[in-house]
Amino acid sequence: MATSVEVRNAFAVLAVSVVALKVLQFLWRAVWEPLRLRRIMAKQGVKGPPYRFLFGQVIEQVAFQDSFPESLPLGNYANFSPTVTPQYALYFPKYGKTFLYWRGIDTRLCVRDAEIAKEVFINNHKSLKRSEVEDKIIGQVVGTGLLIHQGEKWASERRQLNPFFHQDALKGMVKAMEEGTTMEIHKWEQTVAQAGGSAEIDVEPDLQKMSGRMLSLTAFGIDFDKGEQIRELQAEIARDVFLTIRNPAYWIIPGYRKIPTKRNRYIDQCLAKVHSLLHEAIDGRRESVRNGEATSYGDDLLGSMLSAATEGWDETAKDFNLASVFSNTQLMYFGGQTTVANISLFGMLMLATHPEWQERARKEVLEVLGHQKVDASALPRLKLLGMIINETMRLFPPAPSIARETTKDVQVKSLMIPKGMTIEFAMVAIHQDKDYWGEDVGEFNPGRFADGVAGACTHPQAFSPFGLGPKFCLGSNFGMMELKVVMASMLQRFELLPSPNYKHHPTFTLAQRPKFGMPIILRAL
Ligand code: HEM
Ligand SMILES: *[C@@H]1O[C@H](CO)[C@@H](O)[C@H](O)[C@H]1NC(C)=O
Ligand SMILES: CC(=O)N[C@H]1CO[C@H](CO)[C@@H](O)[C@@H]1O
Which of 14, 205, 227, 278 has the most CB atoms in a 10 Å sphere around its CB? Predict the structure, then answer.
C-alpha cells in the first residue's frame, strides 16, 4: 500500500514534469521555431532584422511609430505609411519585396509582391489558416463570425450569408442607407447656416455615427438604437484592445487578457454589454413572432438571417443556427462600420485637398441626381465617385495588411514557404509600389481608375482593399454603395475646404484613422 509520502512524492514528480514540459514547449516556440524559420528563409535570400527574444520587433516598431511629429506632410502618399505600418517603412526599403520579422514570437514573412500574394492567398489557400495570434486580438472585438471561421464551417456560413449581399438584395437597402446620412448632414447644414455660410467641423465623430446609423438601419431596422449602442461599445473595445497590445507584457505573459487589470476588466464589461444587446435584439424579434405581434422576423439583415437560421445555439454545429446569427451580426457591425467611416473620412480629406476632383465629382453628382435623394438606380452612374473611392482605398485601405499561417510547406515558384510561417500580405505597401502603379504612385489621382482596376495597375492583386482569395470581403458591394451614398449626399450640399487645424497622422487601431480627428471646412453651396 502506498504511503501518503509516496503519493505526495509521485505528485511532486508529476507536477515538476508537467512544468518542465511546458517550459520546453515554450522554449521550442520562442527560440527554436523562430530561428528555424529564419534559417530556412535566409538560405533562400529572404532577410530581415534579427530575432529578439520574446518581443521580436514590437518595441522597435512602437518607438519608431512614436518618433513622428504630430503633423505629417500631405502630398506624398508612397511612404509605406510609417505611423500605420511601421514595419513596412522600417524594413521594405532595406530588404526588398519580401522580409522576415517577428511580432512577439510569431515569425512573419512580409510580402510586397502581388504575384507571390496571388499564388499563396488564391492558388494555395487550402494550405493556409487564419493567424491565431491575430484572431486572439481581433476576435475580442468582432467575435466568432464568418471572418474567423475556416474549412467546412466557413464554407457553409458563407453560402448562407451570400444571398443577403447580392446586388438585388442590396438595392432594397439604399433607402435605409440614405436615411442613415440625414441626421448628421442636417446637423452640418444647421451649423454652417448659423456660422454664416461656412464652418469648421471635426467630421470624424459624425462620420462614425453616420456609418453606424446606415448599418443600424439596414441591418437592425426597428432595433437600430441597439445598433448605435453596439457601435459605441465596439469602438471602445477596439481602442482598449489596441492599447493592450502595445504593452510588451501582452506579448510575454500567456493569458494576459485574463488578468483583472483595470483595462482588461473594462474590455470585458463592454463585451458583456454588446452580448446582452445582441441577445435582446434576437430574442425580442423571436418573441414577437412567437406571440403573434409580428408576422415575420423583418426584412432587414437581422430579420433575413433569423428567417434562414435553424434553432439552437451551438457555435460548433455546421448548420446556420442562432449562434451564427449572433456572431455574424457582431462581426458585420464592426467590419461594416469602421471601414466605411474611415474611407469616407479620408475621402473627404482628399476631396478637400484636391478641389479639381471635387468639382468634377460634384458636377457628376448634380448631373445624375440634381438635388434629389440618392436612389439605387443612380448609383451605377456615379462613375467618377467610384474612381475617387477606389483611389482613397488605395492610399488608405482600412485593413492595411492581411495575415495567414501556413499549415504545410508551400512552394511558390522558387520560394519555399515552410509550415508554421505567418504570411503578411502587405496590402498598403503593394498599393504604394510604383512597379505596379507607375511614377505617380504617391499622388492622389482617381483618373488612374478611368478604365477600372485593370487599367490602373499592372497586376490584378496590386489593388486588394477588400482582400483576396475565397475570404474576399462579403460586404464589398454593400460598402461601395454606402460610400457612394455618403459622398454624393455631401457633394450635393457642401463645398469642402481643408482646415489649417488638421494634423495628418493616420494611425491603426483596427482600421486606419486620423489620430487627431478630421476638421474640414464646409461651405454651403
Ligand atoms: C467598404 C469598406 C470595406 C472594406 C475595405 C472591407 C475590407 C475587408 C477585407 C480586407 C476583408 C478580408 C479579411 C481577411 O481576409 O482576413 C473583409 C472581410 C469581410 N468583410 Fe469587409 N470590408 C468593407 C466593408 C464591409 C461591410 C459593409 C460588411 C458587411 C456589412 C463587411 C463584411 C465582411 C465580412 C463578413 C468579411 C469576412 C468574409 C469571409 O471571411 O469570408 N465588410 N472585408
Ligand atoms: C473599384 O474597385 C472595385 C473593387 O476592386 C472594382 O470592382 C470596381 O470596378 C472599381 N471601380 C473603378 C471605377 O475602378
Ligand atoms: C471615422 C471613424 O469611424 N474612424 C474609425 C476608424 O477606425 C478606428 C478603429 O477601427 C475607429 O476607432 C475610428 O473611430
Answer: 227
| DSSP track, 260-302 | --HHHHHHHHHHHHHHHHHHHHHHHHHHHHHTTS-SSS-SSHH
Residue 213: pLDDT over 70: yes
pLDDT for residue 2: 58
Helix (H, G, I), strand (E, B) or coil at 481: helix
Q: What gap in Å lies between CA 123 and CA 412, rounded to an integer? A: 10
- DSSP reduced 3-state for 3: coil
Closest approach atom of ligand 2 to CA 464 = 5
* CA gap 497, 388 in Å, rounded: 17
What is the rounded distance in angstroms from the CA atom of residue 443 to the CA atom of residue 427?
Answer: 17
Which residue among 202, 233, 342, 349 has the greatest number of ligand 3 atoms within 8 angstroms of its CB, and so is best to mutate? 342
Distance from C-alpha of 213 to C-alpha of 337, rounded to nearest angstrom:
9
Count of C-beta atoms within a 10 Å radius of residue 130: 19
By alpha-carbon position, which residue is closest to atom 27 of ligand 1?
336
**What is the C-alpha to C-alpha distance for residues 113 and 436, in angstroms, rounded to an integer?**
10
Residue 390 CB–ligand 2 contact under 6 Å: yes
- Phi first, then psi: what are they for 76, rounded to 5°? -100, 110
Please state, in angstroms and rounded to a whole number, the distance separating the CA atoms of residues 208 and 211: 5
Given a cut of 80, is residue 223 above it in pLDDT?
A: no
Ligand-binding site membership of 457 (annotated):
no
In words, the CATH class of domain 44-524 is mainly alpha
Query: Nearest 5°: phi and psi at 54?
Result: 70, -45
**Cell numbers given for 10:** 509521485
- Domain ranges within the chain, ordered by starting residue: 44-524
What is the 3-state secondary structure of 296-318?
A: CCCCCHHHHHHHHCECCCCCCCC
Q: What is the DSSP string of 150-205?
A: -HHHHHHHHHHHGGGGSHHHHHTTHHHHHHHHHHHHHHHHHHHHHTTSEEEEEHHH
77-107 pLDDT, tens per residue? 999 999 999 999 999 999 999 999 999 899 9
Tell me: pLDDT of 130 over 70.
Answer: yes
In one-letter notation, the amino acid at residue 399 is: A
Half-sphere exposure of 426 (CA within 13 A, CB side): 28
Q: What mean pLDDT do residues 17-21 have?
A: 80
Is any ligand 2 atom within 6 A of the Cβ of residue 467?
Answer: no
Contact 345, 516 (CB under 8 A): no
Residue 307: count other Cβ atoms within 10 Å of its Cβ.
Answer: 13
